[in-house]
Amino acid sequence: MEVQSKFVTLKNQIEGAPQESNFEIKETSLKQISNDEAQLIVKNLYVSIDPYQLNRMKSLSSTHSATKYANQVKLGQAIDAHGVGRVVVCGDERFKEGDLVVGHFGWEEYTLINTTTADGFFRKIESSEFPPSYYLGILGIKIDNWVRIALEGISGLTAYAGFFNVCKPKKGDFVFVSAASGSVGNIVGQYAKLFGCYVVGSAGSNDKVDLLKNKLGFDDAFNYKEETDFDSALKRFFPHGIDIYFDNVGGELLEAAIANMNMFGRIAVCGVISEYTNKRRSAPNMLDVIYKRITIQGFLLVDYLHLFQEFMSFTCDQLRNDKIQAIEDISMGLESIPSAFVGLFNGSNVGKKLVQLE
Amino acid sequence: MEVQSKFVTLKNQIEGAPQESNFEIKETSLKQISNDEAQLIVKNLYVSIDPYQLNRMKSLSSTHSATKYANQVKLGQAIDAHGVGRVVVCGDERFKEGDLVVGHFGWEEYTLINTTTADGFFRKIESSEFPPSYYLGILGIKIDNWVRIALEGISGLTAYAGFFNVCKPKKGDFVFVSAASGSVGNIVGQYAKLFGCYVVGSAGSNDKVDLLKNKLGFDDAFNYKEETDFDSALKRFFPHGIDIYFDNVGGELLEAAIANMNMFGRIAVCGVISEYTNKRRSAPNMLDVIYKRITIQGFLLVDYLHLFQEFMSFTCDQLRNDKIQAIEDISMGLESIPSAFVGLFNGSNVGKKLVQLE
Questions:
Q1: Which of A254, A286, A293 is opposite residue B300, by nearest beta carbon?
Q2: B271 touches chain A (CB under 8 A)
Q3: Where are the alpha helices (DSSP H) in chain A?
Q4: In this complex, is the C-beta atom of B292 within 8 Å of any C-beta atom belonging to chain A?
Q5: ipTM score here?
Q6: Where does the record place a coiled coil (chains A, B) (predicted)?
Q7: Domains of chain A by start residue, with CATH
Q8: Which residues of chain A are under the pLDDT cut of 70?
Q9: Distance, CA of A295 to CA of B167 (rounded, Å)
């Protein structure tokens, strides 16, 4: 069987912020070669749109390129991305047509998978308790052997590992989360509240601030675009200082957070989105780092996969009891992928950004 | 009894690099008021000259000021500093005239101590096995209750705690030490070699490089003033990358170190001397910090005082067996204190900078 599949591709390597014109849509045909090859064709239902992908679309020489650590996106080819799909052509007896699978697929209508080589890069979703899209966000994800692939877009376990294992919270800690309405930030803030911390988030619009305070239970939140001086803003929201900073943005906000940290403060560096499109790097006051004995720790999910069962059990329970909310921002149709991606860097998304393909 | 005592004082708060003209020498008379007051007068033999003192000589508003954490040096008054001295007037039965004491005294000929309030800020040196000056450097120091006082100038235990407890070394680790001929750096490098690491140091002259390689046993060393590109320099000296960076300088070298760190690299931030006199702060690539899971940790000795016995026992053994060298740089006479201090920021000193007063 052969299917026609449209896919999003990169026209040129990106410098600075991405533009829709950096992308184009192409079409190809996918064909299952033989049953011996143990191939599947998956029709993608949802694909994930994540900031980390930008760093692989840059030239190798870019100082904000991640391509020295992972594969660079190739011009004209399909762009790999996490997705949830349905098996439509099945050449592997462990699956059957109609199975829901989550894995590392692509910004494309259909993905052809050689299950012998891709073993472990995807798995079947057995339960129908939660919407399939949750497996790209709040319930994402563990798939064995993803070490070689992108694990950065996996919101739920990233938030869990980053908050509980890197930040090492204590009840009553004052916690600051930047990009707090983003895919990881909103979950970190909700975990921190459940754990008994005081949580303030920053976001880029008044609607997002409203969401954080009124729907997600943050103690407070502010619109960073309305603040002229981040240092004063943090002093206002944290009169007793910050114990934990979960950093998704880098830049000036990291400097201001360090200036407002308490003794033995902990900073988990999860992302630096403000620096991905901008050359202005954070230049923190290292004298503060010394005198306040601050620890700044970069982390990647791949080192915390052993937490998967504990994460799933805890998070599913909270979802069942309505103690935690899944915040998703879903656009429709393959054609909307470039604008959805560009929007990440304008702060257009609220929560996990997905594109629904069917 | 009354003594005339000359002391060094600050004429104005310092901006940028210190100048000898920032200081002047004054004289006062010290008098033991009564035996009831339990006072001592100590004649200082050696006083310690340390970079951290600059940060207390700045205005409160300086971004490189430490005065928000500790006492600011007051204009016209004696400048406190670690010292070794001899008791010349004794109003406390726990001491006697002629006793050698080490403690937090000052850049002055004599220090008057109220032993009831200063209890624990100094102690008697009981052993004569090592030169008294060692207690300001390689064997410095634990004195109870120094929490409220400057502990930053205490080289030996700082190097020990910073290397073994903050850097968490493994045998075979590749270790980079900046300001490696400085008071702390030279000891860190020697500990790292004893522990079985590969150690490269940076320093500011060819004589210092020679000292590191030929006297202190560093595997390699380089003169940073002869390098135009720190990133390339570190690539040359660490073709397999850096596992541990013991940072005494901050600035550009910290950026280059982060660019050359290995996965799970650890950075102990002990000092940022390049930034004390310069507004150019380090702006590390946080994407490297994330992807390489680097930990950057500021530390102060005060949190590691429990290591004192283990540190002393280990270090005295190494000194006895000639496995570690005490590197001291001693100027003569109170009048040389301002130039000795200014010289710290020009890189004039080799090892622990002291001024001998008698």
A1: A293
A2: yes
A3: 115-118, 155-160, 185-195, 206-210, 230-237, 251-259, 273-276, 286-291, 308-320, 337-346
A4: yes
A5: 0.88
A6: none
A7: 2-137+327-356 (3.90.180.10), 155-302 (3.40.50.720)
A8: 33-37, 61, 63-69, 118-120, 141-153, 278-279
A9: 12
